[in-house]
Design brief:
There is one protein chain. The chain contains 11 helices and 14 strands. The longest helix is centred in the C-terminal third of the chain and has 17 residues. The radius of gyration is 23 Å and the shape is elongated. With about 350 residues, it is α/β, with parallel strands linked by helices. Helix content is about 30%, strand content about 15%. It has an 8-stranded parallel sheet with strand order 13-12-11-10-9-8-7-14. The protein has a 4-stranded antiparallel sheet with strand order 2-3-1-4, covered by helices on one side. Strands 5-6 form a two-stranded antiparallel sheet. Bound molecules: phosphoenolpyruvate and manganese (II) ion. The site of phosphoenolpyruvate (PEP) has 11 residues, from loops.
């Protein structure tokens, strides 16, 4: 941490800052410039926070140097993590070595629709099935999802296809039932800063897919991941799904640079959702190619056997030839980025929070 004194700060102001820092066991290194004095603090940053340095006489500004997040930071965890999803006999890795393709309907509507969408996903090479049983809808009049019935449908389709399932949980009270039936819990964009929900999924014992809030900075997103990790669950996968900008031609603007930025500061895997970013099916394939090229660890896309009849997000759901083009991209491009076939990987020990 660095304290920047104001140009008119007195020697006494500087001494009082140094004394306050040393009183909590920290060290303070004073450097006098021509105009300003700066004080470098070394020690426990959290204890410095309680000192209220910013409000002291002669203090102009206080800057933090280290990341505000710890467990998800790369500072003390240089190697990027792999999160394994699914039961012991069918585990799928999401991480830096392979590329994970997740596909499925936006919402679970019926057993038939979910099975058909899952078969489309399998046919295209997906190894995880997505599908919402609890839908976070902007309108309270829109289809809210089938709830527990939807979870049971997903579990049945997992039985038939063998694909582990990732599904959203929107309310902390539903975490136990969703964790019982799903392989991975999704926290959606609208709930990224629902701290009670983050803590609940942190205690669920299941891997978490944490979508970026549509107006969240990367730092806020990583702090949300820290909430999950702080409850003992480091099996968190980040998902960039577009942010709100002034550009109206897409539903959100896919922040492709968020992938390498997050990878530089956090060890967590990161995937991209081009469907919810664009809101248009014609952009899903090009954005998926971009995600692979930028170094994402996977993509998650919406597919539907009959998008025109979809109860949620039909315009962005892929079928037929679009899916063939996507299947080709996720087969051919990841090897060029140094990604290996996931079936060649074996599970390493789980990362346990320090
Ligand atoms: C979803 O994946 O179904 C979804 C609602 O996405 P997001 O939270 O990114 O809008
Ligand atoms: Mn959707």
């Amino acid at each position: 941490m660095v304290v920047v004194m104001t140009p008119d700060a007195t020697e006494e102001d500087v001494s009082r800052v140094v004394e306050r820092v040393e009183a909590v066991g920290g060290e303070a290194f004073v450097s006098k410039g021509v105009v300003r004095t700066i004080i470098g603090l070394v020690g426990d940053v959290d204890s410095f926070h309680h000192l209220n340095l910013r409000s002291m006489a002669g203090v102009g500004d206080v800057h933090r140097i280290s990341d505000p997040y710890k467990l998800v930071s790369r500072q003390h965890h240089a190697n990027r993590s792999t999160v394994w999803v699914g039961a012991a006999d069918s585990q799928v890795p999401i991480g830096p070595d392979s590329f994970t393709f997740i596909a499925g309907p936006c919402a679970v509507e019926s057993p038939q629709q979910t099975l058909e969408a899952a078969e489309m996903a399998v046919g295209a090479g997906a190894t995880l099935l997505r599908g919402g049983a609890y839908k976070p809808r902007t309108s309270p009049y829109a289809f809210q999802g089938l709830g527990v019935k939807g979870l049971e449908i997903l579990a049945g389709v997992r039985e038939t296809t063998g694909l582990p399932i990732v599904t959203e949980v929107v309310d902390a009270r539903d975490v136990p039932v969703v964790a019982e039936l799903a392989d991975m819990l999704q926290v959606g964009s609208r709930n990224m800063a629902n701290f009670g929900l983050l803590q609940a999924v942190g205690e669920s014992g299941k891997p978490v897919l944490l979508k970026r809030g549509m107006t969240a900075t990367i730092e806020e997103w990583l702090m949300a991941a820290e909430y999950v990790a702080q409850r003992g669950n480091l099996d968190v996968v980040l998902c960039e799904r577009g942010i709100r900008t002034f550009e109206p031609s897409t539903r959100n603007t896919l922040d492709i640079s968020a992938v390498p930025v997050a990878q530089a500061t956090s060890h967590l895997p990161i995937i991209v959702d081009p469907s919810h970013a664009a809101g248009r099916k014609d952009l899903v394939v090009p954005l998926s190619r971009a995600a692979i090229a930028v170094g994402a660890d996977g993509v998650i896309v919406d597919v539907h056997p009959d998008p025109e009849a979809a109860l949620c997000d039909g315009p962005q759901a892929l079928l037929g030839s679009d899916l063939r083009a996507l299947a080709q991209a996720v087969r051919q491009l990841p090897p060029a980025m140094g990604r290996v076939d996931a079936s060649t990987l074996t599970r390493r020990d789980k990362v346990v929070p320090a």
